[in-house]
Amino acid sequence: MAAATAAAAATVTAAEVGAAVAATSGSYKGMSSDNVKGLVLALSSSFFIGASFIVKKKGLKKAGASGVRAGVGGYSYLYEPLWWIGMTAMIVGEIANFAAYAFAPAILVTPLGALSIIISAVLAHIILRERLHLFGILGCALCVVGSTTIVLHAPHERQIESVREVWDLATEPAFLLYAALVIAIVFILIFHYIPQYGQTHILFYIGVCSLVGSLSVMSVKALGIALKLTLSGTNQLIYPQTWTFAMVVTVCVLTQMNYLNKALDTFNTAVVSPIYYVMFTSLTILASVIMFKDWDRQNLTQIVTEMCGFVTILSGTFLLHKTKDMADGCISTATRLPKHADEEDGFGQEGIPLKRQESARTP
């Protein structure tokens, strides 16, 4: 009797262990086919966009050698084939990025935008002979590690059968509250703070771009899903929600371009790019978590791992931007100049502080 009881207990214990092992091995089921498609599209987008900067800069330099430089108001680059090749590559990259959102969650696609910075830096080192310093290489490595971490732990894409499902998600109280807060803050920044502080504080321009950008990505994702379903045979163009999302995308993108151009014209790229990347990516992930409930389909370990990957990408991005234009000597922080004080081929010196200095101060 005792032997039978012991055997039964051993059988139960073995069954429990087997179930635990199965649950552990099943906790990570690999990437879904949609996530793989989104990943490939996002990587392709990063390659084309990163390469486009290098090709366009080569075109700008070639055009500037025989005409008026773009940095002083010239448009001779419009006659330069290299510049148009770079512009075409950028358009292809943006289309691939748009398509990626139709297949994969924003928490996977958006952080991968940092890879375009790596590609641009590596190609600049090889083609333009712009030296990539040791810390820049470390920044590239951090971006790759962080991106890999996010890719391996990203949530599976929610299965959506109609654009009306996306509309239902967008009109839930939580996301409506987020959208209302974003719109209110944007209006306050545009009409109150930017007229007074826009030329001296970079965060106001970038804040508008990032806040509006988080709404534009959600609308781009909705529009991408609608187009994907339409191409697969389920026409979504008959629904007014599709056209509403298209209108939101148009308004948001135009607003982003306007204030991003203002930021780039006022402050240096080395300051604008990493801050914009951090704010835009963070707010986009937040918006996606609220609207598509990405984290509801994940456990705490996966969420924490994704956040660690994101912080790793941020660290790499800041390192790369901090060192990408460093010369052998260091630029003295006491003599940093405004953006337009020293430009070459339309690309100014990097490294001004967050507040624009109108003149160099002497002690």
UniProtKB/TrEMBL annotation:
<feature type="compositionally biased region" description="Basic and acidic residues">
    <location>
        <begin position="353"/>
        <end position="363"/>
    </location>
</feature>
<feature type="transmembrane region" description="Helical">
    <location>
        <begin position="38"/>
        <end position="55"/>
    </location>
</feature>
<keyword id="KW-0472">Membrane</keyword>
<comment type="subunit">
    <text>Homodimer.</text>
</comment>
<feature type="region of interest" description="Disordered">
    <location>
        <begin position="341"/>
        <end position="363"/>
    </location>
</feature>
<keyword id="KW-0460">Magnesium</keyword>
<dbReference type="GO" id="GO:0015095">
    <property type="term" value="F:magnesium ion transmembrane transporter activity"/>
</dbReference>
<feature type="transmembrane region" description="Helical">
    <location>
        <begin position="134"/>
        <end position="155"/>
    </location>
</feature>
<keyword id="KW-0967">Endosome</keyword>
<keyword id="KW-0406">Ion transport</keyword>
<comment type="function">
    <text>Acts as a Mg(2+) transporter. Can also transport other divalent cations such as Fe(2+), Sr(2+), Ba(2+), Mn(2+) and Co(2+) but to a much less extent than Mg(2+).</text>
</comment>
<dbReference type="GO" id="GO:0005886">
    <property type="term" value="C:plasma membrane"/>
</dbReference>
<feature type="transmembrane region" description="Helical">
    <location>
        <begin position="76"/>
        <end position="96"/>
    </location>
</feature>
<feature type="transmembrane region" description="Helical">
    <location>
        <begin position="238"/>
        <end position="259"/>
    </location>
</feature>
<feature type="transmembrane region" description="Helical">
    <location>
        <begin position="175"/>
        <end position="195"/>
    </location>
</feature>
<keyword id="KW-1133">Transmembrane helix</keyword>
<keyword id="KW-1003">Cell membrane</keyword>
<feature type="transmembrane region" description="Helical">
    <location>
        <begin position="102"/>
        <end position="127"/>
    </location>
</feature>
<feature type="transmembrane region" description="Helical">
    <location>
        <begin position="271"/>
        <end position="291"/>
    </location>
</feature>
<protein>
    <recommendedName>
        <fullName>Probable magnesium transporter</fullName>
    </recommendedName>
</protein>
<keyword id="KW-0813">Transport</keyword>
<keyword id="KW-0812">Transmembrane</keyword>
<dbReference type="InterPro" id="IPR008521">
    <property type="entry name" value="Mg_trans_NIPA"/>
</dbReference>
<feature type="transmembrane region" description="Helical">
    <location>
        <begin position="202"/>
        <end position="226"/>
    </location>
</feature>
<dbReference type="Pfam" id="PF05653">
    <property type="entry name" value="Mg_trans_NIPA"/>
</dbReference>
<dbReference type="GO" id="GO:0005769">
    <property type="term" value="C:early endosome"/>
</dbReference>
<comment type="similarity">
    <text>Belongs to the NIPA (TC 2.A.7) family.</text>
</comment>
<dbReference type="InterPro" id="IPR037185">
    <property type="entry name" value="EmrE-like"/>
</dbReference>
